[in-house]
Design brief:
By secondary structure, this protein is of the alpha/beta class. Helices cover about 35% and strands about 15% of the residues. The protein has helices at about 1-15, 40-60, 90-100, 125-135, 190-200, 215-220, 220-230, 280-295, 320-325, 330, 340-355, 405-420, 440-455, 475, 480-490, 495-500, 510-520; strands at about 20-25, 30-35, 65, 80-85, 105-110, 115-120, 140, 155, 160-165, 165-170, 175-180, 185, 205, 240, 265, 270, 300-305, 360-365, 385-390, 425, 460-465, 470. An eight-stranded parallel β-sheet has the order 13-11-21-20-19-18-17-14. The chain has a six-stranded mixed β-sheet with strand order 3-2-4-6-5-10, with helices on both faces. Strands 1-9 form a two-stranded antiparallel sheet. Strand 5 (about 105-110) and strand 6 form a beta hairpin. It is elongated and about 100 Å long.
Length: about 525
């Protein structure tokens, strides 16, 4: 009987014994990193990030191996990194959770005694997962852009790294978390600035869509292309559009040959960035170029219906005037009804693009000079809208009832939400293309993000002048402007550190986060 009791106690103890830790870096050996043969660029880059920071912490360098090429023996600890598309042996529970995720950048980190998995639903979900692991399980912190004087990060020293079994599923709150580069020539990339913002949780973006001569050079440079693909989903590649939507198909040099593409002002055709939107030949050129670009990407990427954000110089021809709604507030004030005019132009172009690429991610701007709600037109339910809150008050949340300025923006955003069937995201201007240094708006931003989630918004966007950029001439040649541009990201590092993470988890304790970073940095 005593032997039976002892055996039972031993059996129960064995069942209750905690599972052993996964040893990433042990006293005598290290795990190896395994990536698939057809690994995404984001997977390769994520593996290198893990190698880099493990070496910084421990002085030990992990090996990266391609699956099937000299992997360790059965039972040897391994780190597996990839996406659902490239990993063929993902555990069923991981695959099921990722397939059910709403956002394509969702990722899972899962540690078992023998394997540490980093799996993304799509690229670069696995890259975000590795960065989050280094933060939450290893204590690494990325604060601001690395410079010669300051690494901009905190890396604790460790002899070993062991992780108790756990699973962490993460997906961002929004599909759009963009920080668009402005005022910069996007070749070369300010890589250090780009990396720290990605690791905060943003989608750092190049100024794609601006017709700069460097674009062709960029796509021929394999190192730059690799870096971009490692940090940005092909869904978020800018296929075209934006402020230069019409400039691309009707540039200034075309004026003498096709003056009818350009606006009639004071009785004569003139060149400016505001074209004649009633000219269907002009609109068809946009359609043809867009279809060609989508043909090159297989229908992937985002196209933006936008135009120049000028306040005067609109076309006064009779055909354009007939596009306006005579009962609109603008027309009654004697002004062109740009929102309605532009919406009708969009409704000529968009159906042709959707006919060929029905799943295309198409966005229309509700930008500063044409963000009044259009009248007498419909909005294609497949199209997103991007509402620009130029001029809002950043000292108060967007839905603060005591802020008279923001009440108007909140009301107009509600009108656009009712008008659009697909959903929209905010185009904000906290500190992108301006002369603003740090102000403590993190709590206000947390309130805004919670509002956007409550409203079912699909995203958030701000502009950014990246530290280390090669700025365009009008910034580079102005010492005062260049000084501000160089310092915007550096002086606002607390804001970006907090907000990037809030866009994945709006329940974060902002004060605790700021207390920690002010202690560590």
């Amino acid at each position: 009987v005593n032997r039976m009791l002892l055996a039972a106690v031993v059996a129960v103890s064995a069942l209750a014994a905690p599972a052993r830790d996964f040893e990433l870096v042990g006293k005598r050996s290290c795990a190896e990193i395994v990536i698939p043969e057809n690994a995404e660029d984001s997977t390769k880059y994520a593996a290198n990030v893990l190698v880099e920071y493990v070496e910084k912490m421990t002085g030990r360098k992990l090996e990266v191996k391609v699956k099937g090429e000299g992997e360790g023996g059965r039972g040897a600890p391994r780190v597996v990194i990839g996406t659902l598309a490239t990993l063929k042996d993902v555990p069923a529970d991981i695959a099921a959770k990722l397939k059910g995720a709403k956002q394509f950048e969702a990722g899972i980190a899962k540690a078992t005694p023998d394997t540490l998995w980093f799996v993304g639903k799509e690229t670069p979900g696995e890259h975000y997962a590795v960065c989050n692991f280094l933060e939450t399980k290893c204590g690494v912190r990325w604060f601001t852009t690395k410079t010669e004087e300051d690494p901009g990060e905190y890396v604790p020293r460790k002899e070993t790294i062991a992780v108790a079994p756990y699973e962490s599923f993460r997906e961002p709150l929004f599909m759009e978390r963009r920080l668009s580069m402005v005022g910069s020539i996007w070749y070369p990339i300010p890589e250090e600035s780009f990396k720290v913002l990605f690791r905060a949780g943003f989608q750092p973006h190049l100024s794609i869509g601006y017709p700069l001569p460097s674009q062709g050079d960029f796509w021929r440079n394999t190192n730059y292309v690799y870096f971009v693909r490692a940090h940005l989903s092909p869904h978020k590649r800018r296929v075209g559009g934006g402020h230069h939507l019409f400039d691309e198909v009707a540039p200034k040099k075309m004026f003498d040959e096709h003056p009818e593409f350009f606006p009639l002002v004071d009785g004569k055709r003139v060149w400016n960035h505001l074209h004649c939107f009633s000219n269907t030949n002009l609109l068809q050129r946009v359609v043809d170029v867009t279809l060609k670009k989508y043909g090159e990407t297989g229908g992937d990427g985002q196209f933006l219906f936008g135009m120049a954000d000028l306040t005067r110089g609109w076309c006064e021809c009779e055909a354009c005037r007939r596009l306006d709604d005579p009962n609109s507030p603008a027309a009654k004030a004697g002004l062109p009804d740009i929102s309605t005019r532009f919406s009708k132009a969009i409704n000529y172009m968009a159906p042709q693009i959707y006919a060929k690429y029905p799943d295309a991610e198409i966005v229309r701007w509700a930008y500063t000079s044409y963000r009044d709600l259009p009248t007498g037109v419909t909005h294609d339910p497949r199209m997103y809208f991007q509402y620009c809150s130029h001029g809002r008050c950043h000292g108060h949340a967007l839905d603060d009832p005591n802020c008279s300025r923001n009440k108007a923006f909140r009301r107009q955003l509600g009108e656009w939400r009712a008008f659009s069937g697909k959903g929209g995201f905010l185009y904000d201007y906290y500190c992108g293309n301006s002369e603003e240094n740090y102000t403590c708006c993190e709590h206000k931003e947390q309130e805004d993000i919670r509002l956007y989630k409550k409203l079912g918004m699909v995203g958030w966007k701000n502009e950014m002048q990246y530290t280390g950029s090669t700025f365009v001439k009008w910034v580079r040649k102005d010492p005062v402007r260049k000084s501000y541009a160089d310092d915007i990201q550096a002086s606002n590092w607390r804001y970006y550190y907090v907000v990037g993470r809030l866009l994945w988890d709006d329940s974060i304790d902002v004060d605790a986060m700021l207390d920690e970073v002010d202690t560590l940095f």
